[in-house]
User: Fold this.
Amino acid sequence: MNVSLDRTLILLIRNKDLMFQLIDYMDENQRKDLPTQAFYNACLKKFENIDSKSDTERLRDAFALENLIKTGVVTEFNQSRGTIAFQPAILDIFRMFDKERVRGLRSAELENIRVQMENAYQQHEALSFDDDNIAFLEQRDHLFNLLRAINSQIQNNTDHLQHEADRLSKRLDHDTAVLSLQESHQHKEMLVQVKRIYDREIIPTLEFLNTREYSKTKAPLTIIDDIIRLYDIRGYEDDSYYIGQYKLSILSHYKTLEKVKQALQRYLHQERRHRLTYNAIEQAYLDLQAKAQSTFTESLKDKYIFKLFDQETLYFKGLKNHAAGQEARIEWHDRNHLMYFEEFLIQQNARKRSESPSEIKTFDNRPKNDRHNAIKRRIEKIIKACDIKPPADDLYLEIHNLLIDNLQADYQLHYLLYGVSCFKQQQGSKFKTRISFSYPQKIIRYRNQVLEYNKREFIS
Amino acid sequence: MISNELSQKIYNQLINGKAINKHSYNIKTNELDDDQLYTEMFMYFDEYRQLYQRINFDLVHKNSRFFFIRELNGGDANEATIKIQALLIVIGRIVTEKGYLFDVLTDYRAGIKIEDLSSAMSEERYTDILHTCKLCTSRSIEDEMYSHLITRGIMFKNSRGHYVLSDAGTAFFSELIDSK
Assistant:
């Protein structure tokens, strides 16, 4: 079903979020056309959110591609590429609804305006100024239309830049304390945006409005001056006055733009500093990487980077290595060092005593051959059968005597350790042993063997 | 007049290869305070310089941000210095390459988490470099940072547990940027 242009436009305006979405897509991807699929997807999403069935039907009819083409809202439909392009004037209307979506004038657009002005001047120069000359009248009308359009474009451009500058400065000033990596990422993105606006929009517009600097191409406002002069010379003072007024109106935006430029200057310094930091670190990293890569050879001697550094280039050149042992003592003279030293010796001796195990010191430490552990098995039986009851003052001595009596010639001092451990295994759950430290340790001598041990009392 | 107590504290730090920074981080208040050792050295710089010269050290006041000592007639480039420099460059690269503001590393309230660093440093391009500097061969990056940067006063850990450049670390990057 066909829907008329005015009805379609009204529906588009009522549902302007759909158009904003499409404009954002085009701006983000820096394109003037739109993939048909993106358009269909946006429409479907929009229809899904409408509750009323009749409204949905109405929108379906209005936003059908055939209808948009027929009404001229979509001016281009490339089936092979699968793209559509909206009428630029309609896009501009929607951009005007939201300042954020007003597009600034880029260099190419400003150059286009300049070329139009130059053409207008050349046309006027070739014409005879006469009210009966239709060509002149047409050119004059064209010139005034052009001046009106330029004035409005520059006005929109200034508003857009002012809005962008305000928006960015508010965000950047708000983020004075960047405390997380995510925040810092956003902050940096915003600085890049400032730089982009400055380079691509502010500077070209200021150059466009500058009448003082001369370059190969004439500045647009100088061309307007030339046109004014033409009208003056040919006796059309009124027209020249109005053209002059247009020029002043266009020029009045210069000051506002200068202010915007100054406002962004601070952030540009920040951005420049970040860029320099990035470049410097990148350069240092590449140098380091090159040095590291030069060590990737077959020579095992040169696998480290250290020889490649020039001493003079090191920032912390000669920084002292760690020397944890060196420490200045504070208030040395106020302490009773003799007392501290004695205390230290006592502590050392106590530690030595507790750490030293029972061990056999002997001239002949070769153990007697105990085939199939026959003696050890006998010891286990002897210990099992023994009647040592608590309290016993020295467990080692008790077991030593017990084993001498039972093993006789087969007994050696190192079987005492085995005997004590068997005893502890058997009796440990019922009774306790208490170690008492003494210095020097207790000693048992037997057949050229000496056992030094800490006494164990056997208690209940 | 030189304070004996401060002078002994200064000696303990410098002789152990530690930098004395203009500001010290107070973890309890999460603020940077003026470092009293730095102030003491700054006030009696000539005396301290002479003192260390007598024991064969050059007292260096770098970029008006921190002090350290180096041996007079020192030999070849020492490994420790190169390790510090390599670690700082790699840390700086990770931050800037990921599109973060470098200020995150210098703001004592911000800093960078060890997880962010260690995940990036596990990439081959960084481990290759670190290994040629005898770094991260047997120890983790956290251990390496602790022994080469934290104990030397080139970085510190803030109350959030994030790593932040001290005055000495920041001065290194400032000089790097100015020299390019």
